[in-house]
Specification:
The protein is mainly alpha-helical and 153 residues long. Helix content is 70%, strand content 0%. The protein folds into two domains: 38 residues; 95 residues, no CATH class. This is DUF29 domain-containing protein.
Length: 153
């Protein structure tokens, strides 16, 4: 009969050697409510990682959306369908993320300064306009402009 230490070692080995098999094993342990078979340390790490991934995806989408809105406003002569399509895609993806994780909505305003800074830097690089052309802080409202079907002019 395996000791608790041996079982714990086996779970960690499986986590490190075959992640898919580990997830299937852990799902079965959860499904059958076998608390002793759970790899608590790695489960905690993975659950926390999932939350970080949602936040990172949201911030990345927001940054890309902001960059294209900047390009739309500050380079009107280069407006085209591809920019509009990117803006539409990012808004759709953001809506989907927020639908699946509604509590994330309250964190979006906290993400805005960093997302804006990244978008500003990327917009300056892509447009070859001076960074100083773009405001240091986002001039647009998240709820009435950025995240809805609004376009800067």
């Amino acid at each position: 009969m395996a000791t608790a230490r041996q079982l714990e070692h086996t779970k960690t080995d499986l986590y490190e050697q075959d992640f898919l098999a580990w997830t299937e094993d852990q799902a079965e342990a959860l499904r059958t409510k076998q608390a002793g078979a759970l790899d608590w340390e790695n489960l905690l790490e993975e659950v926390e990682s999932m939350g970080r991934n949602e936040r990172n995806a949201m911030e990345s989408r927001l940054s890309l959306l902001l960059m294209h809105l900047m390009k739309w406003q500050w380079q009107p002569e280069k407006r085209g369908k591809s920019w509009m399509q990117t803006i539409r895609e990012q808004r759709k993806a953001i809506r989907k993320i927020l639908k699946n994780s509604p509590s994330l909505r309250s964190h979006v305003p906290e993400m805005l300064p960093e997302a804006w800074a990244e978008a500003r830097d990327d917009a300056a690089f892509e447009t070859e306009l001076p960074l100083s052309i773009f405001p240091e802080t986002c001039p647009w409202s998240l709820d009435t402009q950025v995240l809805v079907d609004w376009m800067p002019e």
